[in-house]
Records
---
Amino acid sequence: MIVVENLYKSFESAEVLKGISTTFEKGKTNLIIGQSGSGKTVFLKCLLGLFPYESGSISYNGKIYNDLSQSEQRKLRSKIGMVFQGGALFDSMTIGENVKFPLRMFSKKNNSEMEDRVHAVLKRVKLEDAYKKFPSEASGGMQKRVAIARAIVNNPSFLFCDEPNSGLDPKTAIVIDNLIQEITSEFNITTVINSHDMNSVMEIGQKIVFLKDGHKAWEGSNENIFKTDNEAVTNFVYSSELFRKVRRMYNEGL
Amino acid sequence: MRGLILRDIDDLVIGSFGIVAFISFFVGGVVTIQTALNINNPLIPQYLVGFATRQSVILEFAPTFISIIMAGKVGSFITSSIGTMRVTEQIDALEVMGINSINYLVFPKTIALLLYPFLISIAMFLGVLGGMAACYYGGFTSVSDYIWGVQLDFIPFHLVYAFVKTFVFAFLLATIPSYHGYFMKGGALEVGKASTTAFVWTSVAIILSNYIITQLILS
């Protein structure tokens, strides 16, 4: 579980996060949503420890990140899996080597055990035949699945995903969403996803935090996001013609 | 880490062997031709051509000017490869995993370039050899005179001086381009700009440190 309390972050004079407090629950897919420029990516990077923040606190399973020593912070980070927006796969390594990388760095397994684990994880994301391919030879959807495989290979306690569906067709996007949700419940990890894709919200949004101008404007689940009368949320959700049409049909009883 | 160092030795040192050999051989030949053509006075002995070529190649051409060329080749490779990793969030991925990215990316390159003096010693040999080939094929002076000149008044400390500065240049070649790649911001265009900036600053640092080392060691 990740608990965020009163988080503030600014760049020079621009205040980006303005006192965000929320909880990301274990075994659930937690989504951070909001318009571009609302502070989602900065919030995610603060959670990952990539950006320092001015005030507030972030605690992982009860341990406040900033109170940990540098070596404890690195140890905690080895328990974090991250799926970057572009995949961030290492170009010079094959897909198998990419997935094996966290194991080589942190695991005490011998080589054959590591290989077994890599093959098992690649099988889990349905890429068992891609071991020897390079990332440049893989499609966007495959790269995302490799990134997920790399993120979960070391049995992380926390999984972060930055817009995992961006650049994917709707069908592949659903495959990725389902994969993330299955992994979250299968390994009972805390998953935080940064997204502005309403399909993801509907599919896997067990807990949703809506950001607007650096504030937490609303939080809830995919079941009640369509029932809320919060103006910021409804403006965001019904900015799509498709959703406006669905609402009209719903209201007309069709 | 051993694998990374070996890969960087291959990329940075062994991969530069061809261009260094080519340039050294022909520039050594040109130095010999220029020297021979500028000696008009019959009182000046012909073996001076070999002597002048050796001194030029060992003291300046091989360590300094090959390093400037390497600032373009190796330096831009380092900046663009690290810069691309920054742009594509690969460095963030390393940090999130709890890996010290500077150590992971820069340290192997610095260690790999400890073999850079090996490349410079080859440049020295091929530069002198290129001069001899020019004498043989161009007839500017006899090969025996050239070899005599190459051996004349050889001061071993000059090699110490050349290799001291080569080690300094190797450190500059590894660190300055890495810095520009690691701390760059932006996209593909900025990677190109960072490579150019890295080349300029590495060259400036090499020229200035060359001056300072020469002043300190030889004066």
---
Amino acid sequence: MLRIAGIDFTSRLFLGTGKFSSSTIMAKAIEASACQMVTVALRRVDLENPDDDIMSALKGREYTFLPNTSGARDAKEAIRLAHLARAASGSSWLKLEVTPDPRTLLPDPVETLTATEQLVKDGFIVLPYMNADPILALKLQDVGAAAVMPLGSPIGTNQGVLTDSMIEIIIEQAKVPVVVDAGIGAPSHAAYAMEMGADAVLVNTAISIAGDPVAMAAAFAKAVDAGRTAYLAGMGQRSKQASASSPDEGKLSTDLGFLVEK
Amino acid sequence: MFQSPEFTNLSTNIQGAGSSDVRRALSATRLTIHDLAALLSPAAEPYLPQMAQRSTEITLARFGKTTQLYAPIYLSNYCTNRCVYCGFSADNLIKRKCLTIDEAEKEAMILHDRGFQHILLVSGEAESAVDIEYMEAIALRLRDKFAAVSIEIQPMSEEQYHRLFLAGITAVAVYQETYNREMYKKVHLSGKKSDFDYRLETPARVAKAGMREVGIGALLGLSDWRAEGLAIGYHLAWLRKEFWQTAFTVSFPRMRPAAGEFEPLRIVSEKNLSQLIFALRLFDQDVGLIVSTREEARYRDGMIGLGPTRYSAGSCTAPGGYGGDNSDGEQFSVGDHRSLEEVCAVIKEKGFDPVCKDWDREFQAGSNLL
């Protein structure tokens, strides 16, 4: 089971709540996905208003509520937003997003590391959104991130997991859970990330702008399950060259004639 | 802390592997610990040429056409431990000697003049002879004369390792000897070394102290070498996760005749040793693999480029052996007696570059607070 900061999750699909045509559709899609972790942009919701459309649509359900700092341009802004969110919601969970470029919304590695270190000291459970940089992942882990969230491709592009070589290294090295976030545009992308050994994926746009978001949410749930099961089952390896299936096959250039029996 | 898996379970897991497991491991790009078990199994023996081929390809890709070279300096053969396999064991009636700082420097300069830039300081465990102050003094004396100074001495505390790091030591080797807890108890009769867990935790203390490189390994000939290999794999993988800024090496000390007439309890053949080296190379593409002069010239020459990345050369395993003219009080007798020059010539002949300098004292200069 996936465990982050002492909380167990049976679902490995996290959902974003942006870009849905209505909060009713959003709630239905979340329901269909069986997800247990939902991220909400602080800029979008009014945490102190009980009638806020997103918050009321989410009310009464068993989600771990993950406020995000979308829109923060630097560590200072993100830290301030985080404290506001905790004061209003009572939850210490935080998806840290520091995205100084409003066009690409790519994460700032320097500010993200600074903010993570401070917010961990302030008692937050920090899940930083980051570029797929293995060293950054380890540094974030070292300063106390509860998980790392490397991007598959630029957010909202639906391009899939273009950073797979780097994400593979992050998965291999990290001690904290790795959640592939951003760029996942199709259930097959989600399955691919899970097959690689990602601990979870976070999906938003691919579901919210689908013709039928509710059906798409269910499709993603299946894909995440399938990918995880395949990973645990032990995937066969892809290989560019045919590999010997018996000891005598194939030409070998390595000479072991120097070995003696002693 | 690292929990070493139950040794007999490791043996059982390895014996359970079949040829389909071996083939899977051979075609995998990232190997799991189960793949390593398969490659260490008897089922992998017919695939030794395939393993050699993969190991050669990976070693070439990751390390290029190079072989690193270093030489050991034995500082002292005083030892308070009684270890049945070791020439330095307290019970053995050998000539004991501990070099003074000046003598150590003299030995080091002989190696320096022969062309060595990386030396490994070795000693038995006897606090009265070799303690932290002694090591610190030698490190400070040698740090500016060599590109890299490593140590292979008794386990120390994290704080002591940090002191040595600041004094110029960059790497520490500490071999578990055997990951078989019961066998460990049997062969380490008395002395500080008889504490299995303290030794097992040492590589982590070294890494925590900031050392650049940590060497681990098992003495081949005490117990099931396949299970030792798998235990090394577990230990290495754990260390990598915990200490991502540290480089790791594995050594393969295969038991040789020593004073005290100890015969290896298990025979490990050259084929076995090669299988172990290839398996670990496939399991961890970037780990440094060290083959010392315990092995014969023929074997070392044959293995150039196939998996090992570092060789010792021109070694003497007795304190003062480079300046003196006899090998009394040596830890073990070496199998390759050639000089650095001769070893370099063979490496070049194979199309490889013998690398004596792969570090620089400047890296340590900034940390010198002493």
